[in-house]
Structures are given as structure tokens and as C-alpha cells.
Amino acid sequence: MSREQRAKVDTMLRGPRPEGPLPVEEIRSDFAALMATMLVPDGIRTTQVTLGPRSALLVEPTAHPRAGTILYFHGGSFVFGSPETAMSLTANLVVGTGFRAYSLDYRLAPEHPFPAAIDDALGAYRALLDAGEDPETIAFAGDSAGGGLTVTTCLAARAAGLPMPAAVVAFSPGLDGTRTGESMETRAAADPLLTSAGLEHTGAMYLAGRDPRHELISPAVLADLTGFPPMLLQVGTNEVLLDDSTRLAARARAAGVDVVLDVTADVPHVFQAFSGVLDEADQALERAALFLTQQVRSTR
After folding, report:
1. What's the pLDDT band for 299 if we cut at 50, 70, 90?
2. Active-site residue, selected from the candidate residues 183, 269, 275, 280
């Protein structure tokens, strides 16, 4: 346990906050600046590509590649973030597995509210399948809102008659637009990053007046997960979104889905991004890479 490391990260995330909601462009620039400080491992190369309807960042290992593809969805409340802001997470999964990853630049709200991000994610998955990739060699992974996309894209794929991917890995996923989890209140003081007011602000941009009681918005409370692939949900106890993961795991178990609920104590939202700074982040990423290599069929 790295109490000093966790305390340092917590203090950093509790830095001065502005009064009231920020304009969306300022939210985006502030988040990009924060994520630019995260450490990215060596041993990768990146290429800008097109995947289905959107651009994507292809991240490949420079040594010991294995057959397997990660379709990665970045976080940012569906309002901010990019493949670049998620690079520390994507690159660590690529290095840890030997698989390549496509990190999707899906459309963001408020310019493109629900369900634009899901449509883009489904389009990217369809493009991989149309290119001849075996779904047993594809895994979905993502963080925060992107973690939610790993689940909702599976729901959309099932509705479209597409096969399920081999596995799902979600880091601190956002899975409940109704914000009814008990942890929204019980973990509010412990969470150094997310607040109810902030989530309401960005959530309103994404919903654009839609009722959040929809399985593609709140799968933790409404989705039927029958037929889903094996899932790994990683979350910290210092998160208001903790119960998004615990409730989805319960729904997965009830549907007969293999699910690993991986809870780390006293760490914040998407703590895995602090690889190289926080021991728990490195350990969680190692567990995620192991899960992916166990579930994704590889021929090399």
C-alpha cells in the first residue's frame, strides 16, 4: 500500500477549483493540460488513421506484437477528452498485452449529444468486423465515460445483430445517468475529482433534454446484459461513481456473465492514469493486461 503516493495524488486533485460551471472550451483545455502530465511508457508507435466514420489513433507495440485488437474509448463525460488525453492508459495496455489499440476520436457533446458517441463507437467496431477481424480477437476498453461506452457499445452491437467482442475492460466507468447510486452521497467527501454539480453540468450537455432512464444512458440500473462477454470493472473507493461499477457487476452476475469487480481502496477516479506515480495504478494496469491476454484469442 502506498499511502504517501495516494495522499499526494489526492492533494493534487483537490487543487483550487473555480466558482460555478466553466465554459466547455475551458473544461476541455484544462483536462488536456492535466492529462498531458501523465506518464506514457516507451515501446509504442502511433499513427493517425480512420476507423469507420471517425478518426482514431492507432497505438502499436514496437516489440513482441501479438494478434489482438483493443478498441479504446477515452473518458471525459462525453464532453471533453481525446485519444491523446487517454494515451497513458492506452499505451500501458498495448505494452502490457502486445496487442494494438485503436483509440477512437468519437464526437463530443454539446455539439453532438447522445447518442452520437455510441453511434461512432458502433461504427468503429463494425469497421473492424467488415475488415475481416474476428470478434474473438477484439476487446473493448475505456475509462470513465469511455468505460461506459464499452458497455453501451455492446448493447448497441447486440441490437444491431453484431457479435460480441471477446472482452470488456472498464476503468471507473460512468454507467448511470440517473445518478442514483448511494456512493454519489456516501463518497462525495472522499472523491477529490468529481462532484454532483460537475456531473450534472456535463450530463446536461450530453443528454440534451433526453430522459436518462434509458439502457444506453444508465445501463447499471436498466440494461439486460445477457450474452455479454467477460468483463473487468476496475474502480476506486474514493469515487462518487463507485456504485456504477458495483451495480453493473451485480446485473452481470444475474445475467450469467463472467465479471470481475476489481475495487482498490483509497484511490480516485481513473487512478490507473497515474501509472509510474501510484503503485496501485501500475498493479491495476497489470491485472487489466493479464485479463485481456486471457480473454482475447491470439495466434502469434
Report:
1. low
2. 269
Each residue's pLDDT tens digit, 4-24: 999 999 999 998 877 778 899
Burial of 133 (0-12, 13-18, 19+ CB in 10 A): middle
- 239 is annotated as an active-site residue: yes
What confidence tens digit (pLDDT) does each residue in 121-172 have? Answer: 999 999 999 999 999 999 999 999 999 999 999 999 999 999 999 999 999 9
Best CA proximity match to 85, nearest among 71, 104, 69: 104
In angstroms, the CA 220 to CA 257 distance is 14
- Looking only at the bridges linking them, the beta strands covering 231-236 and 167-171 are parallel
44/182 Cα distance (integer angstroms):
40
Mean pLDDT over 254-261 rounds to: 98
What is the value of pTM for the model shown? 0.97
Give the pLDDT band (50/70/90) at residue 300.
very low
The catalytically annotated residue of 239, 245, 275, 280 is 239
Percent of the chain surpassing pLDDT 90: 94
| Domains parsed from the chain with CATH numbers | 3-295 (3.40.50.1820)
Strand residue runs (E) in 180-220: none
Find the catalytic residue in 77, 88, 144, 183. Answer: 144
**Residue 144 annotated among the catalytic residues of the structure:** yes
DSSP code string of 29-93 = HHHHHHHTTS---SSEEEEEEEETTEEEEEEEESSS--S-EEEEE--STTTS--TTTTHHHHHHH
Distance CA 111, CA 286 (A): 36
